[in-house]
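Work Package 4 report. The design task specified in the project plan requires that, given a folded chain encoded as structure tokens, an amino acid be chosen for each position. We show below one input record used in the internal validation round.
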């Protein structure tokens, strides 16, 4: 008999409601839940493919241990005992920092892993913690910490009420939003135009989002900070800046005015690639709108001036009074208010308390930027990394200079990976601990609700019971720490030392229930279960005075560490510093049927035309006699790759683009479908030593390369 279960897709931030038809054992089909009031029936191909992920024969169900050149299945008890024992032993021999931890993106979409995260990460007692944050949102959370006094206070576009949405360095039609949970995104963007509003896209590529916009401007990669300074210059020069009700709580307005006076549009236009007249028009349009949003994501974060650009995006919203205003950038009031808790417990985030051993990169929240990972493994001396734990991440394909990491991982004495695939990263592991599938665990989009374009709350029980003998990700996290602690012989310190059974008392589900009850909407799991399609808690409401967390409870418009980086930006304006003849700037590209590196083992997501191509403008291609379909060699400081060329006027001249997360032909990975559609890994040529100097976030957009026939 066919049964229906309503679920939530946990692949990306859009939290689409799912209608899952099944017979109690097997999934018959997955479609968008039409009754979900947030996602309104929208679903993308990745959500539909959750069925194939669930059924994928390559997905591990039991732990495996390396045996010769292959793998053997082992019991959980043996796997944990060996992993815990080896880690404890390595730490005893070399010190606690000899063990590094890297965790990846799927953690962010898994509430129970998040709630069991602190005891997990603290349990290793190491400073060598790394995550995908430093190839993604590090600049965003850093700017929030510096300007609003809390890394978790994230300005979210109120796109349902805005009149002007300026997107700079994001492609939400494909990504479905980032630091902006917005299902059915394309439709919602079109609705802005349907009600007479404007959508403007600023991007070195004419993206899928640009294609539905009123206007698109090419911008030279890495120059957004200059463009935004010039916008601000016009706003102050023409006295059209008006912070409105924010005026009484802004510190640094005059200082910003002085800074931007140095950047008239005429000075930056050539470097930026946008004519000064257009910059002026954009600044005037933005200022004259009573509900406008300036929103940036990866394109303004993972670049050479990621901290400056992210800061200046916020500055544009602040000086025009669009922060905390309906139709502008707003703060959410989620049912579990992690930002509020961070404030209450005085844990707003930390920055630069210590630096990495080799290159001196700053800590953020107890983590180092991934740019430091390879050198910390390779460089001898006290504190050298000797063992690694990966949790829901694929650094070999997702971090800059994956080839160097490949070699560095080969030097490690022990690796344990929490993952359900033997992929490019976990093939290096000694032990792999696989978690249940997304269909076998309950969902509450804890972080996604924090960044929702409306306040909503949605809880769904697991679609299927946990199979006999399997473990949830959060259970693996806690069990691993428990075994390390046991092997350390220390039953005294920290949560990890508690008996594993005691931790069940604080199970993530119980914690969630408590947090919901204590939260601003006084919900509970029981209440939420009555709403299988989610609860709408209304549009975002102004609340800056309540949530701001700087010591003087004012907006710190010009943080010192950011103002100090402007000098570095000056060199961008120096003609001597321009790219050499024949060089291109390489940027990254996302496609709808990929999720970073990890859904390429699903036939329906990889079939059809090869997406792993190098896009180049036709003028650049003609000059070199290149044509679509031929192969080219793309060379950077760190290496070269060979990729098929796609000639398209989507690209800004002088800029080329590659998809990332491919390159599935590495020896030893066991992804039978992905191997047939291997592609090449963009991160074989991204450069680990290109990073934003303030935050240490990696540059994934704007890498100097040459392109030759091959
Ligand atoms: N060149 C370039 N590189 C980039 C980017 C770019 O734009 N350009 N983007 C960056 C960004 S934004 C991000 S977030 C990172 C992502 O970097 P990562 O998070 O390191 O990489 P993913 O490809 O997301 O890999 C996710 C891994 O988690 C596993 N997994 C999936 N679900 C689960 C689960 O429930 N439990 C466990 N244990 N494992 C699971 C998958 O099998 C896979 O191995 O990549 C970054 N890399
Ligand atoms: N289908 C799909 N959806 C995803 C993902 C996926 O892999 N596939 N990944 C998810 C993850 S982990 C994340 S973090 C989000 C990211 O979400 P987004 O940030 O919306 O996605 P990107 O496609 O990386 O958008 C970055 C845009 O910046 C542009 N760009 C590059 N360099 C510059 C620059 O210097 N200046 C400006 N102004 N623009 C620049 C690029 O051309 C690109 O259009 O997407 C999420 N959603
Ligand atoms: S947009 Fe994101 S959340 Fe929605 S179905 Fe696709 S992958 Fe899942
Ligand atoms: Mo990401």
């Amino acid at each position: 008999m066919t049964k229906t279960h309503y679920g939530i897709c946990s692949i990306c931030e859009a939290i689409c409601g799912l209608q899952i038809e099944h017979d109690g054992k097997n999934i018959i089909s997955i479609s968008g839940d039409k009754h979900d009031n947030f996602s309104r029936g929208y679903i993308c191909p990745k959500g539909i493919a959750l069925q194939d992920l669930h059924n994928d024969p390559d997905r591990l169900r039991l732990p495996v241990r390396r045996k010769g050149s292959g793998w053997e299945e082992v019991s959980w008890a043996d796997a944990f005992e060996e992993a815990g024992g080896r880690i404890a032993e390595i730490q005893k021999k070399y010190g606690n920092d000899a063990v590094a931890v890297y965790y990846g993106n799927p953690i962010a979409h898994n509430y129970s892993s998040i709630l069991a995260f602190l005891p997990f990460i603290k349990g290793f007692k190491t400073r060598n913690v790394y995550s995908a944050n430093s190839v993604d949102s590090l600049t965003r959370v850093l700017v929030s910490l510096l300007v609003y006094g809390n890394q978790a206070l994230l300005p979210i576009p109120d796109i349902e009420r805005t009149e002007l949405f300026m997107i700079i360095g994001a492609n939400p039609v494909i990504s479905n939003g980032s630091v902006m949970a917005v299902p059915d995104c394309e439709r919602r963007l079109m609705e802005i135009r349907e009600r007479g509003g404007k959508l403007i896209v600023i991007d070195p590529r004419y993206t899928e989002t640009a294609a539905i916009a009123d206007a698109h401007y090419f911008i030279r990669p890495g120059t957004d900070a200059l463009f935004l300074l010039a916008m601000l210059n016009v706003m102050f020069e023409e006295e059209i800046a008006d912070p409105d009700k924010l005026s009484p709580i802004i510190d640094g307005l005059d200082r910003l005015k002085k800074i931007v006076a140095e950047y008239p549009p005429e000075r930056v236009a050539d470097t930026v690639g946008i004519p000064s007249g257009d910059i002026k028009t954009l600044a005037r349009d933005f200022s004259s709108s009573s509900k406008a949003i300036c929103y940036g994501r990866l394109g303004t974060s993972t670049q050479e001036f990621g901290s400056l650009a992210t800061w200046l995006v916020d500055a544009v919203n602040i000086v025009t009074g669009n922060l905390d205003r309906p139709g502008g950038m707003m703060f959410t009031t989620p049912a579990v208010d992690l930002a509020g808790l961070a404030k209450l417990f005085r844990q707003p985030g930390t920055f630069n308390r210590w630096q990495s051993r080799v290159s001196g990169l700053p800590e953020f929240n107890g983590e180092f930027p991934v740019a430091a990972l390879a050198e910390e493994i390779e460089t001898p001396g006290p504190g050298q990394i000797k063992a690694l734990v990966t949790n829901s991440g694929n650094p070999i394909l997702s971090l800059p200079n994956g080839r160097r990491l490949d070699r560095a991982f080969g030097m490690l004495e022990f690796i344990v990976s929490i993952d359900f695939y033997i992929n490019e990263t976990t093939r290096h592991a000694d032990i792999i601990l696989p978690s249940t599938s997304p269909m076998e665990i309950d969902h509450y989009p804890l972080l996604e609700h924090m960044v929702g374009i409306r306040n909503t709350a949605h809880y769904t029980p697991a679609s299927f019971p946990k199979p006999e003998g399997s473990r949830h990700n959060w259970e693996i996290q806690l069990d691993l720490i428990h075994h390390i602690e046991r092997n350390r012989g220390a039953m005294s310190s920290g949560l990890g030392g508690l008996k594993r059974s005691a931790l069940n008392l604080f199970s993530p589900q119980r914690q969630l229930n408590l947090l919901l009850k204590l939260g601003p909407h006084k919900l509970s799991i029981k209440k939420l279960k009555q709403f299988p399609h989610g609860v709408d808690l209304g549009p975002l409401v102004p609340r800056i005075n309540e949530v701001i967390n700087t010591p003087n409870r004012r907006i710190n418009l010009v943080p010192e560490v950011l103002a100090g980086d402007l000098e570095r930006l000056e060199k961008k304006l120096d003609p001597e510093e321009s790219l050499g003849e024949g060089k291109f700037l390489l940027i990254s590209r996302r496609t709808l049927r990929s999720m970073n590196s990890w859904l390429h083992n699903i036939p329906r997501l990889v079939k059809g035309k090869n997406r792993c191509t190098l896009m180049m403008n036709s003028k650049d291609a003609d000059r070199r006699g290149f044509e679509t379909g031929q192969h080219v060699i793309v060379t950077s400081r760190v290496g070269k790759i060979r990729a098929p060329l796609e000639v398209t006027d989507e690209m800004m001249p002088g800029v080329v683009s590659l998809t990332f997360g491919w390159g599935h032909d590495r020896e030893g990975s066991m992804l039978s479908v992905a191997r047939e559609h291997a592609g090449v890994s963009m991160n074989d040529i991204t450069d680990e030593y290109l990073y934003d100097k303030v935050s240490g976030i990696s540059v994934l957009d704007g890498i100097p390369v040459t392109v030759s026939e091959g």
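The longest helix spans residues 76-94. Validation will be extended to a larger panel in the next phase.
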